[in-house]
Amino acid sequence: MSQRDDPPTSAATAVDFFRDRFGLDENALAASLGTALERSVDYADLFFEYSTQDSVSLEEGIVKSGSRHLEQGVGVRAQQGERQGYAHSDDIDVESVQLAAATARAISDQSRDPGSVAVRRHTSAHDLYPVALAPTDVPVQTKIDLLGEMDAYARSLDPRVKEVMASVICQYRHLLIAGSDGRLAGDIRPLVRLNVQVIVGDGKSMEIGYQGMGGRYELARLLAPEVWKPLVDEAVRVGTLNLDAEACPAGQMDVVLGPGWPGILLHEAVGHGLEGDFNRKKTSAFTDRVGERVASPGVTVIDDGTLAERRGSLNVDDEGTPTQRTTLIEDGILVGYMQDQLNARLMGVPATGNGRRESYAHLPMPRMTNTFMLAGTDDPQDILRSVQNGLYAVSFGGGQVDITSGKFVFSANEAYKIENGRIGAPVKGATLIGNGPEVMQRISRIGNDLELDLGVGTCGKDGQGVPVGVGMPTIRIDGITVGGTQG
Amino acid sequence: MSGTGDRLKEIVARATDRLAKAGVAGDVVAVESDSHEVRVRGDEIDFVKQARERGLGIRALIADEGGTRSATTSTSDLLPDSVDRMVDETVALARATAPDPSAGLPDAGFAADLPDLELYEDADRGVAVEARIEDARRAERAARESDDRITNSEGSQASSDFSEIAYGNTAGFLGAYRSASHGLYAEPLAEANGSKQRDYWMTVSRRLDGLEDAAAVGRHAAARAVRKLGARSVKTCEVPVIFDELNARGLLAQAAGLVSGYAVYRQQSCWADQLGENVASDLVTVIDDGRVPGGLGSKPFDGEGLATRRKKVIDGGRLETWLLDSYSGRKLGMASTANASRGLGGPPGVGSGNLWIEPGHSTLDEIIAQTERGLLVTELMGMGFNAVTGDYSRGASGLWIEGGEIAYPVEEITIASNFKDMMRGIDRVANELLWLGSVASPALRIDRMTVAGE
Q1: Is A76 in the same domain as A194?
Q2: With CB atoms 3.0 to 4.6 Å apart as the test, which of A170, B139, B237, B345 could cross-link to B218 if both were Cys?
Q3: For testing the chain B interface, which of A140, A244, A286, A433 should be mutated: the one with the most B CBs within 10 Å?
Q4: Which chain A residue has its CA at the smallest distance from B99's CA?
Q5: In whole angstroms, what is the distance from residue B448 CA to residue B452 CA?
């Protein structure tokens, strides 16, 4: 190390970790890349991972069980044209890496003189989530005590709370990525998450309320009562609210979405459709539409992997490309896609730091990081008042999209009728369905209250889950299909 | 069993011995798998992926005053020293948890025999990656050639996976078995008059020769995509809704969640107080059987070493049993039904073996003909199902039925009801079962649901 007095960044610490623990110095990495390059391939890379995860969960008032998981391995990839060869191994030693490299390169049938690869450390552009104490090193008793306090607090809030389930999940991942273009990137990624779920009942019916939060920061932050108490309050509030909720109306109506987590609309309605792979393959509803209007004027959608401590943030993506802030839609016009290294190369555009994978056992793909809409100028109260009769949806469960047709769906777990511009009775079981490019053009009002979610999102694609963030101000959509039971 | 199975059993035995020496009960599961997966788009290879994976899951159970303390750990590092260290760590972690009177190994019922369930075909082991690439290529080609509106594709994917699973516990059970799974999946795109649609079809089997022909998979996927072209919404209404066999199996999987012992004792099931009651129409009989030869949900013993068996879960509409492992069984004062599922990453949970709805007598075409006006659902989207209340509202696409005939494709609609009413409202059960996983159902018709559209 030639750095002087600078404290070690996560990138440098990760590089040193793999060198010291597994003997992966720059020569060993170069030799393995050389093996992958013995056939004619355009690019090859190595992805090393050493991860620890622990979780403690409470139900029926006690922490019945704790768990801890160690995962280590290496993924080796070779690319030629559109082809990718991938092999992975749970052993991190030079022999296994060589074997995996030989397997991965088999996608190419032409041999060639490998030449030499020199990997050199490149300084990462960011250090977005350094922690002094790894969350997986926090004593388990601390986590058990936290859950016990949450349980007692939840039960004290309302006699209708019948059952409380709470969990704290901590992850600490060391990653090292070496590419045949000489790149060498390391990262250390902490991730914490706290969940609370309550079952409430009033003798007539039962309901469920949930709230969670997390991000890439020290667990200590979640231990503060002023942080976790509001989570419990919220879970109990939503659960008991739904006890009295009416059946949701069905049909097309005007809908107001609250700020924050409803940004999942963007994730489903446009986010996936703007991932580079679908657009290179021309299977997306947004294919070949750069420069066209795909949303109402005023709608600007950003994907930003560089927000400090956010669940969806990364110093470098899983291919070693530094993350960035990418504008996807600007004032309603489609301006760009999210790219990994392969799709960027094939489309002749720069990679955007969106190449992500669940673990060493998975191939990278273009994925979102934190995706959100910039704030507008409208007062959220004015937006609500502008709707005669419709639906106000505040919080959502999951969503899904069909990339090709553009159809997306997501389900509200807190929603209200709007009657004469006023918030009316709570309704349950509301599902919204629409066509991404169409619905984005029906956004008629944008609030001044942009919020990011609390840090609970996991996005699934091709069987791979990665943590993501979403955000949005209050918006109004003119006419979207709401699926309830009251016709 | 091959030498590999013996090696896995040795690792398991080493860990259970170490638990026992520490004066602690517990169990250990080890998995090793070899797999490959390929995807072809058009004629070009998209990716070829090969993996050898393994892992070990350890559970320590420490009897104490008032109950048993427990913890689980997992690791992909199977070196003897690492395993020893992990066992010690598990025991230490368990000491930190609270005693639970229901925790512990099963009391009895460990599998005495391990029948050959035809989960693995030795000859398939030698399958070359090239052969699976050719399968995927044939599916792609067949999809493309079957209709000139097939213009693109998300690719056709073929995979083969060979696994060994060993399980042992401090009660003296130690067993291992091999299994394999082969699959082929095609997802073509159809395009006409500015409308773009995708759909898929697939085949899965324990044996390579049990797979549906690759070209047939491609053609079937293509036909499903093409028939969606020109789809439109419909006016909001209440009509009978037919779930095709792909989506009926999703309904059954949701029902399986409602009868899981964990959902029941946690009161997270809208059927929690319905044991012995009529929860479905009398046309519905649901079987769970972990020992169907060649079944995708078959295994000789469950995740706690208990001998798997056949049982009626719902008999003519009447709910006969929960699905239980030993823990959820004790919570409910019942014996395990040998439905423990055990991954590496945590304590046992409940899972079904091979779970199916007994076929009825009409064909799907006859059911359509008996439907004056309604919806045939061919795809569902989103997660709009609340297990506690049964509220059900999901995005859908499919085919509209008028006068007993398919009239036109529909999309951007939702279907909604309550799951309890839906199961009681099943008024037609088709006569064909399709196995694409461990859960299967014939097409079903539900008498009435709200379809929301324009």
Answers
A1: yes
A2: B139
A3: A433
A4: A64
A5: 13
